[in-house]
Amino acid sequence: MNRLKQRWGITSNFQLVIIFIVFAITGSASAWLSRPFCELLNITKEDFGGWFTLIRLLVIFPIYQILLVAIGTIFGQFRFFWNFEKKMLKSMGFGFLFKD
Predict the structure, then answer these.
(1) For the DUF6787 domain, which residue ranges apply (predicted)?
(2) Which end of the chain is more exposed for a tag (fewer CB within 10 A), N or C?
(3) Helices and strands (H, E) in the chain, number of each type
(4) Other Cβ atoms closer than 10 A to 14
């Protein structure tokens, strides 16, 4: 845990617990929200077969990104999750979205 705290620049165990809670809530919430969102877009397993899982994961991804920052903000960790998002999106090739 100390390596993780050092890597993330966290000093307290309490903040680490809060961050883990935010990750857990965000993962569950984005998976839960992806179902009605897919239904809204008429993305069904019957129509897409084996591609359904991949398409649903692609739908979940932006939902997760937005929820991560929003829920992190609710828990008082906006700065951590905003920096986490920027770092992750930059590593995926979306660095052009952010000014340094």
Answers:
(1) 18-96
(2) C
(3) 5, 0
(4) 9
Q: What is the CA radius of gyration of the chain?
A: 16
* Tokens read off for 22: 């935010």
The arithmetic mean of pLDDT across residues 88-98, rounded, is 82
Instruction: Count other Cβ atoms within 10 Å, centred on residue 80.
Output: 19
For residue 76, what are the CA distances in angstroms to 19, 43, 64, 71? 10, 35, 18, 9
Quote the tokens at residue 54. Answer: 């991949």
- The percentage of residues in the chain with a pLDDT greater than 90, rounded to a whole number, is 40
Q: From CA 61, how far away is CA 37, in angstroms rounded?
A: 12
pLDDT of 97 strictly over 80: no
Top-confidence residue, 74 or 44: 74
What are 18's two structure tokens? Answer: 């809060």
